[in-house]
Amino acid sequence: MTTPGAISPEDLESVITRGVSEIISQEEFVRLLKSGKKLRLKMGFDPSRPDIHLGHVVGLRKLRQLQELGHQVILIVGDWTAQIGDPSGQSATRTMLSHAQVLENAESYLRQFFKVVDQTRAQVIYQSEWFGDFGLAKVLELTGKFTVAQFLQRADFAQRFADQKPIAITELLYPLLQAYDSVAIESDVEFGGTDQMFNLLVGRELQGMMGQTPQQCFMMPILVGTDGVQKMSKSLDNYVAVDESPVDMYGKLMSVPDDQIISYFEYLTDVPMAELAALRHDLQNNSLNPMEPKKRLAWDVTNQFHDREAADAAQAHFERVVQGRGLPTDISEVSLGDLRSQGIVVGNEVRVDDLMLAAGLAPSKAQVKRLLSQGAVERIIQGGEPQPVTGGEAGYLLQPGDLLKVGKRRFVRLTAP
């Protein structure tokens, strides 16, 4: 583990740019990183749900990175605020939970949390340590430090107010209580998604009011879900849970839209940024099949939460069951050796139209042409996705291991001599 303050330019660049949306204030945060002080890194969570998904992992990886640089993670279990409910990013309040439900969810949450964050270098604190005897006078003192107008600047409150939808008074208390957490532990830096910016800033302001050095606000980007449209969320069923089985985790990651591949790599893996820049260039120029980096992404993340053997098995399952879906177990085979005598082998390759005729997939060249024009022919290259063969691709060269599919049920695999 690195001593706080001894941070290389490369590590500093990674901390403040990779998987980061905004830091308030970045200049002050960098000064603190270089100061040699062991920073108190706050992340709070309300265990209203017991599961963690990859959207949460974006921030957890940043905490782990800073742990490796010698800093202290302090995880606040919101056993009080979870009973109030925070509507950040929501259009309605969350259901209030009993304290017993909160503690049960917290136990599950922590088990998953420490799959990413080093438990030996983290401190877990329950809000009840300071809110357990928090009297009405203290609550009123807190509420007197802010105005309703200030809180209506928060985007979700503002929208609901404009739409004349109800906002419970308890909801207005939520940012105050979260802010007081920062005061209670004397947080140096608080972490959250961009949808938590308002709450983090309230904590920063409250610390200043109460004579503490205002915390820095470190905000991570929102990870888009597997639907490629909305933020990852269990309620939207576009999530990949930390506790997924290897096969399900790998399979869900393979459903990530092509335009999200790079962001998933950046936020969820350690693949160097220079390599990601080259990968982005190749994808944008269509010089790389997206299937290749997507498999690498799915394997990498599955390996992180399971192990190499499980990731390998999950990939093999995907290739066999998903990529090979619809393939019969008794596919006809034609070897290059058998085709050489017909004079249709070029090196170690065979044209699509020649293979169709040789394998009996079409009785004549005219029928071959007709099938191609109808879009009834597909090639499956080395276990990849089926790709239609157009009339102009009759001369496409196939290699051993490639398959041809004609119609819905006729297949042939080209094999080595």
Structural features, described:
- The protein has 417 residues and is of the alpha/beta class.
- The chain folds into 3 domains: 212 residues, HUPs (Rossmann fold, 3-Layer(aba) Sandwich); 77 residues, Tyrosyl-Transfer RNA Synthetase (Orthogonal Bundle); 84 residues, Roll (Structural Genomics Hypothetical 15.5 Kd Protein In mrcA-pckA Intergenic Region, Chain A).
- It is 44% helix and 14% strand.
- The protein has 18 helices and 14 strands.
- The strands form 3 sheets. It has a 6-stranded mixed β-sheet with strand order 1-6-5-2-3-4, with helices on both faces.
- Helix 11 packs antiparallel against helix 14.
- It is elongated.
- 33% of the residues are buried.
Structure keywords:
single chain, 417 residues, alpha/beta, Rossmann fold, Tyrosyl-Transfer RNA Synthetase, Structural Genomics Hypothetical 15.5 Kd Protein In mrcA-pckA Intergenic Region, Chain A, 3 domains, six-stranded mixed sheet, five-stranded mixed sheet, 14 strands, elongated
**Sequence stretches where pLDDT stays below 50 over 5 or more residues:** none
Whole-angstrom Rg: 28 Å
Oligomer: single chain
Q: How many domains in all?
A: 3
- The helix tally amounts to 18
CATH homologous superfamily heading of the largest domain? HUPs
* Spatial gap, N to C terminus: 55 Å
Strand runs, count: 14
The share of residues in extended strands comes to: 5-15%
Tell me, what's the shape? elongated
At the first level of CATH, what is the class of the largest domain?
Alpha Beta
Under the CATH scheme, which architecture of the largest domain would be assigned?
3-Layer(aba) Sandwich
How is the largest sheet built, in terms of strand order?
1-6-5-2-3-4
Average pLDDT metric: 85
Q: Structural class, from secondary structure content?
A: alpha/beta
CATH topology of the largest domain: the name is: Rossmann fold
Largest sheet geometry: 6 strands, mixed
